[in-house]
Amino acid sequence: MTSIAIVGAGPQLGLAVARVFGSHGFEVALISRNREKLDGLVGTLTAEGITAAAFPADVLDRDALTQALKDTATRFGRIDVLEYSPADAPDTAVMTTPAETEPSHVQQQIELQLYGAITATKAVLPAMREAGTGTLLFTTGARSLNPQPPTANIDAAAAALRNWAVNLHKELDGTGIQAAHIGIDATIGTPTFYGQPRVTGDQISPVYWDLHTSQRDLAERIFRA
């Protein structure tokens, strides 16, 4: 069987990506810090005939994240696809303009977005290299390309993740392993965020399947509603 590990799994994009891959026979590992919410998502997927399991871990805890991915590989045999998309909730995220930004404001986002992605990749890439195949997908908002003043600290960290992911794609070219960045220029669910159009996770999730299957030569896809 093949499997996907979704880091930062939630009821919008994470669930939609799980459904797309699960409908193609993938077993699904859901990783985030809230066990209760993960169990609810597992129940939803199980009811739809998709094999899924919860592996609670806070992406800011690198040891816990690494262990969750090791446990996933033990449970499902190996991890064929990693999807990384954790994010602070809009109502709890600290957002600063460029002039207001302190190093600490960026540091927390760097830990969440870039360092977490590096940690997750280090946990799964050796086995992918050994197998000669695999897919690594990293998600940010499109402000990683087009930053906006109200979210300067978040956008700076997102840009760092985008830069690293696109560079990883270049490094892995010819190895059989795909690495790609997905930038989402929309708000998923409600409410809309700074005037962005509102979409559902189901509208975006086919992009992930395409990057895994028919678009493995692409380093990046930008979703615009």
Structure description:
The protein has a 7-stranded parallel beta sheet, sandwiched between helices. Strands 7-8 form a two-stranded parallel ribbon. Strand 1, helix 1 and strand 2 (27-31) form a beta-alpha-beta unit. With 225 residues, it is an alpha/beta fold. It is globular, with a radius of gyration of 16 Å. It has 6 helices and 9 strands; from the N terminus they run E-H-E-H-E-H-E-H-E-H-E-E-E-H-E. The model has no long low-confidence stretch (mean pLDDT 94). The termini are far apart.
Task: Work out the helix count.
Answer: 6
- Low-confidence runs: none
Strand proportion, as a percent range, falls in: 15-25%
End-to-end separation in angstroms reads: 34 Å
Concise account of the structure shown:
Helix content is 44%, strand content 19%. The protein has 6 helices and 9 strands, in the order βαβαβαβαβαβββαβ.
What keywords describe this structure?
225 residues; alpha/beta; seven-stranded parallel beta sheet; two-stranded parallel ribbon; 44% helix
List the helices and strands and how they pair.
Elements: E1 3-7, H1 13-22, E2 27-31, H2 35-47, E3 52-54, H3 62-76, E4 81-84, H4 103-131, E5 134-141, H5 152-172, E6 177-185, E7 187-188, E8 198-199, H6 201-212, E9 220-224
Parallel strand pairs: 1-2, 1-4, 2-3, 4-5, 5-6, 6-9, 7-8
